[in-house]
Amino acid sequence: MSAFLIALQFLTRLPISLPGMPAPAAVGRSLLSYPLVGLLLGAVLLSAQWALQGQAPALQAALLLILWVGLTGGLHLDGLADSADAWAGGFGDRERTLTIMQDPRSGPIAVVVLVLLLLLKFAALLTLLQAGQPLALLLAPWIARGLLPLLFFSTPYVRPGGLGALLAAHLPRAELPWWLAGHGLLLVLLSGWSGLLALLAALLLFAGLRRLMCQRLGGTTGDTAGALVELAEAAVLLFLALTL
After folding, report:
1. Could you tell me which residues come within 8 angstroms of residue 7 by beta carbon, excluding any fewer than 6 positions away?
2. pTM to 2 decimals?
């Protein structure tokens, strides 16, 4: 079974049908395809922006952001919302934080964080489109999903059971650094210095968020991994908008 299709089914809402339950080893190998899924999402967004040329930049930014959320089904936004509630309500306690993350309800902190994040993404997108720099639509999802396998590679997974535990247990550690290095090189070749600097900014954010996860939880969960994706996308867009 294709590891890429497993990754595509999990990370997007594209109509992907798998022939059956994938083996644990195939689930682990799907992490290698996460950056490729990000690249595909970016290519779809870039194509949509090309189709929207001639429309007002604000309308383009709004429609592209809606498409962006729709393609992923809000998967990572849900992780960010759960993480925000848990971090605010956990009061520094590990078990309380993990318990709040499992609550499907969203509190006011989660709502505020989601609104602010989407507002930031919209403003950064609008700035970039007005400046004629749509390449950020390719870079942001690509870089952000490349950080996910890096997180599982470098950080303990603290919640037993579920897909995250399978990913962590069956991660192909010997191959992963080479795959990530290849994506990094391709990204820099396509985008030049701006892409390299955006990648470095995302890695700096990754280091800070990973430290917070380890301090509070002793590692990562599926929710904090989703939060990482959303915050990394926003950071890349913001960095590129600020450095025009």
Report:
1. 30, 31, 33, 34, 36, 37
2. 0.96
